[in-house]
């Protein structure tokens, strides 16, 4: 009897399978159109289904991350400091921090974001990187806003790995920097009213979305510092109130830069033309008025070496070799001198940043980004892309060491610079 119920030939199964599949499709369509499935976040997944989804997630992350290679300096203090500052600004809102719990908004999600100080140890370095870069579909975990800055993601990996062992007071110092002390003497910068809205790009902004998304800045963010006016306080987490950065970490020295350059950089970060998830999530919350006032504030600070450059002694041999590259170039490879653009007397200071006294690690990272093509530009053209591609790691390190060791331009040079940027009569 059983033989009569089941076809003997393989082709005889084809009709029943098609019929069963069509029936399942009709039933599924009816169920979806009825609206019966409950997608409310207040209804948690059944335990077995939740475990199955997590198993699929774990296997997927393990498979796709297997070929990644972490950088040799993954555990460096510089990377930890960079990742910590971004974590406090963006990630702690959902994933919590050492010594604190998670807020009820985050825990009302389905699925709920994990408390990373307890859960991050379940993933290895490569798996953490994959999740941070690509995010997780059907959850609130986003991908990295720019897919061209793996250096930023690895720095976040370096930091989140330390979460299980961090105490609350240490976390505050490493994540919030100078602002952890509660400096209330910093100026507040008003957001203004009805700012001009400008479009920005992200890694998924080109995907057709209809009218359901709004890719413009100023934008809202996890911390409404732009609209409350606490802009300098937020910037000081990484750059300090004096603009010279921190003693550890590749934070740029803003005090040595011109107002025009800082404003241009912030606008480029906000629009996505210059790539950085760290900076875009900050800059895109600022109104045009605030961008100009932030630039004016930091450019008016006393000119001093970056805190990192003032703290660590740069090897004399590196400085000497870097001086040759900076002032003479590498003629055998037709690489021009850096001073051809970055010396005030020879260049438009609105377009080219001052380098004397800049953070060495920051310069190294920027040159490597230029070389890899992942930095992005503030203008239509940047000669550094072609220059950096011809520099070795040793040459990049040496020229960065040279500029870090230099004393920033003094008042007399800056007065001359001011004349250079003034519009000429009849122009």
Task: Describe it.
The protein starts with a helix and ends in a 6-residue tail after the last helix. The protein has two domains: 75-181, Cytochrome c-like domain (Cytochrome Bc1 Complex, Chain D, domain 2), CATH 1.10.760; 198-203 and 213-421, Cytochrome c-like domain (Cytochrome Bc1 Complex, Chain D, domain 2). Helix content is 49%, strand content 1%. The chain contains 21 helices and two strands. With 427 residues, it is mainly α. It has helices spanning 2-5, 14-34, 47-65, 77-95, 104-107, 116-119, 125-134, 150-160, 168-176, 225-228, 231-239, 259-271, 277-283, 288-299, 307-311, 316-328, 339-342, 360-372, 384-388, 393-405, 411-421, and strands spanning 198-199, 216-217. α4 crosses α8 (150-160) and α16 (316-328) crosses α20. Strands 1-2 form a two-stranded antiparallel sheet.
Q: Count the strands?
A: 2
Q: How far apart lie the N and C ends?
A: 99 Å
What Rg is obtained from the alpha carbons, in whole angstroms?
26 Å
- At the third CATH level, what is the topology name of the largest domain? Cytochrome Bc1 Complex, Chain D, domain 2
CATH architecture of the largest domain: Orthogonal Bundle
Summarize the amount of helix as a percent range: 40-55%
Tell me the CATH superfamily of the largest domain: Cytochrome c-like domain
Strand order of the largest sheet: 1-2
The main pleated sheet reads as:
2 strands, antiparallel
> What's the average pLDDT?
89
Q: Spans with pLDDT under 50 lasting ≥5 residues?
A: 420-427
Strand content: under 5%
What is the chain-wise order of helices and strands? Answer: HHHHHHHHHEEHHHHHHHHHHHH
């Amino acid at each position: 009897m059983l033989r009569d119920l089941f076809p003997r030939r393989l082709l005889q199964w084809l009709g029943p399978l098609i019929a069963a599949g069509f029936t399942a499709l009709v039933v599924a369509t009816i169920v979806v159109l009825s609206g019966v499935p409950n997608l409310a976040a207040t209804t948690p997944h059944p335990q077995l289904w939740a475990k199955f989804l997590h198993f699929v997630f774990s296997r997927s992350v393990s498979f796709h991350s297997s070929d990644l290679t972490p950088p040799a300096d993954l555990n460096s203090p510089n990377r930890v400091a960079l990742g910590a500052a971004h974590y406090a600004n963006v990630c702690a809102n959902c994933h919590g921090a050492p010594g604190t719990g998670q807020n009820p908004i985050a825990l009302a999600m389905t699925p709920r974001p994990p408390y990373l100080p307890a859960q991050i140890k379940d993933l290895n370095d490569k798996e953490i990187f994959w999740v941070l870069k690509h995010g997780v579909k059907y959850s609130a975990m986003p991908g990295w806003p720019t897919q061209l800055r793996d250096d930023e993601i690895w720095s976040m990996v370096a930091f989140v790995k330390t979460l299980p062992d961090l105490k609350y007071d240490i976390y505050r110092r490493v994540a919030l920097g100078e602002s952890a002390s509660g400096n209330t003497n910093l100026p507040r910068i008003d957001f203004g009213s009805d700012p001009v809205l400008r479009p920005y790009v992200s890694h998924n902004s080109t995907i057709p979305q209809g009218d359901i998304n709004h890719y413009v800045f100023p934008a809202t963010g996890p911390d409404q510092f732009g609209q409350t006016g606490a802009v300098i306080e937020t910037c000081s987490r990484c750059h300090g109130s004096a603009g010279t950065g921190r003693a550890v970490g590749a934070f740029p020295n803003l005090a040595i830069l011109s107002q025009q350059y800082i404003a241009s950089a912030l606008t480029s970060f906000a629009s996505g033309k210059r790539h950085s998830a760290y900076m875009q999530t900050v800059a895109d919350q600022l109104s045009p008025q605030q961008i100009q006032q932030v630039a004016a504030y930091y450019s008016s600070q006393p000119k001093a070496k970056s805190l990192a450059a003032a703290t660590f002694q740069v090897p004399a041999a590196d400085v000497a070799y870097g001086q040759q590259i900076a002032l003479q170039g590498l003629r055998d490879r037709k690489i021009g001198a850096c001073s051809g653009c970055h010396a005030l007397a020879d260049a438009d200071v609105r377009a080219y940043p001052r380098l004397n006294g800049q953070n060495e690690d920051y310069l190294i990272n920027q040159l490597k980004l230029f070389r890899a093509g992942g930095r992005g530009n503030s203008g239509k053209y940047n000669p550094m892309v072609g220059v950096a591609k011809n520099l070795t790691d040793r040459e990049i390190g040496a020229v960065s060491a040279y500029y870090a060791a230099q004393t920033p331009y003094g008042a007399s040079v800056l007065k001359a610079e001011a004349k250079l940027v003034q519009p000429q009569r009849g122009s």
